[in-house]
Amino acid sequence: MPFLRLRIGLYAAVVAAIFVLASYKLYRGNDARTPQKDEVLIKAMLQGLSAVHYQPEQIDDNFSRRVYDLSLKRIDYSKKFLLQSDIAQLRKYQTDLDDQVRRGSHEFVDLSTQLLKQRTKDVQALYRDLLSKPMDFTVDESYQSDPDKAQFPADAAAQREEWRKYLKYQTLIRLAEIQEEQAKRDPKKASTPALSATEMEAEARKRVLKNFDEQFNDLMQTDDNDRLALWANTIANTYDPHTEYYAPRDKEAFDIELTGRFEGIGATLQQKDGQIKVADIVPGSASYRQGQLKVGDVIQRVAQGAAEPISIEGMRLDKAISYIRGPKGTEVRLTVKKADGSIQIIPITRDVVILEDRFAQSATIDNAGKKVGYIHLPTFYADFNDNGGRSSAEDVKRELEKLSHENVQGVILDLRNNGGGSLTDAVEMSGLFIENGPVVQVRSPQGAAQVLNDRDSRVQYGGPLVVLVNKNSASASEILAAAIQDYKRGVIMGSTSTYGKGTVQRIINLDDALPAEFNAIKPFGSLKLTTQKFYRINGGSTQFKGVTPDILLPGADSYLDQGEKDADYPLKWDEISPARYRAWNQPPAIDKLRAASAARVAASPSFKTVQDIVARMRKRKDDTVVSLKLASFLAEQEKAKAESKRYEESQKAAVALNIAPLPVDLRAVQSDTVKQNRVRRLSKNLVKDINLREAVAVINDQLSAAVTKR
């Protein structure tokens, strides 16, 4: 989920102090009993949210209904477990949840947990029974695949019928895959005979059974801490989509996303067939240097140093990872099964793992003798706990310096799929392209907006600029894109609009906020809560609406209902007074650039194919009833494959970009082939990117216009 955070300053310190005070006051009553952890957590959260959230809720029946509705959506979104009789039992608490959180009771949570546990056991027996019998794919029947259009089953018989169709649909998908595998099979090279129709159907059911057994194995491992985290997060999310509760391990994942680093062994793990397998080794990590752990190894047991090992076989992946990760300098001993069947104990001393792919990278594009610089920024990363940590603004500044040494005549900054991050870095990065002045306005619930300025009059790069965005560009990405657009400093290009997240969050460590008398039941985790909204310097908010690009490009994500406006309980759009600023003295001729781009896009076979596919995807998205008849299903699959093939062929036919890594980057890693591959990978992945090619064409239009003016 996109996020945005300021460095800790005076306002942040005040917010934290208010939260601590509010949480502490909660327990200064006459109740002598010792509260339970769930009661402490929920009450502390609500007290703090009431004190410092941007738009605090009244804890009343309306609040209760919101929590109730979101809870049902979270615990059984597919509507395949709970029956209507279960919903009737839960509905009696629809307007009582506000009273329960005040009392510190949890009748609704207890009942929903009890019902879901029982229904999960019932459904496990149900799917195993249904998958034990052959299925008839000649019957003309259909399945509703959209949960929003479905109803909770009326009774056990209706639930069985719903699961029968659902499992038939899943088996149909596997059967189509198996038939395709058999069609590609070379009889001369095959060691076993071809499967008959009966055998293929049985194999399809077997694969579905295996998949569901793995899913239900994870479901059965849900414990009280998981349920408490889900309940706390559901309550938090009723305030807005970005107010969230983080259990301790979830906060760790958030920090990794923001900083691009963590402490551990540096191995990417996956769960398959109930086993924890090594999928990749991070170059330069502790595992990489130690050398014994290999891709494909199965980790069976984990020991903290010389302690007794713990078996992780069949364990949920996130829990297994929590045993393997740990502080820098500590030892973990992994009992590993190798590909040859041998068992080996591998000791690894944990260290800081740097995720290099999370950081800014650049390349150059040869555009008919003119050099264009390209910068890929996956996130606005910053390490708030380490003054020597990486900063996205500093890294982009460094990439611009390298590109200037390459004498580039234009720059493309790629913020596609960039979910945001550090607000401070967004402001500093915007300042690399303008002289000085306001970048964004930030407003608290009370008081006037604070204007965040670029105070550095230097312009790191002053030439033609294009910023690429899409529907997944959010938060800090929207701040930078909006500033560039408002200053008329460059051209924003992308599909329809950006995500639409215009809020600022603070993270409160609940262990710090709660008094020492609760140390025995810590840790509590953290609360990320919305405390401010940000606004463009023209006064408009990016909240809900996002940023509309200057030049629209057809995109595969155009058909998706994806963005802030599609989330549960988003804050609404509004506007404030504009800040005082002076636009760039040589603005791009947007109207002319837009017209020239539209003409190229209209004449492009590749873009025409994208537009056709998007139209069909939009239609298919609305048509959620699927046929369970094999012949009809395969016919639809053939149509989809034909569309996919047409798209792939159009991309292959597109003129390849002449894009290359920077010589300085290659020289820096010349002795490390793994790092060399990383540097080259960026260029290889972009060669056939038609949106990037159009961005280069827009840069070229600006260069041509500049020559004409001379």
From TrEMBL:
Span of the signal peptide: none
Keywords per UniProt: Hydrolase, Protease, Serine protease
One CC-aspect GO term: outer membrane-bounded periplasmic space
GO biological process: proteolysis; signal transduction
Sample GO molecular function, one term: serine-type peptidase activity
Keyword presence, Protease: yes
NCBIfam families in the cross-refs: prc
Protein name in UniProt: Tail-specific protease
InterPro entries found in the cross-reference section: ClpP/crotonase-like_dom_sf, PDZ, PDZ_sf, Peptidase_S41A, Tail-specific_protease, Tail_Prtase_C, TSP_N
Source species, domain of life: Bacteria
Family affiliation: Belongs to the peptidase S41A family.
CDD domains recorded: cpPDZ_CPP-like, Peptidase_S41_CPP
Pfam families: DUF3340 (PF11818), PDZ (PF00595), Peptidase_S41 (PF03572), TSP_NTD (PF17804)
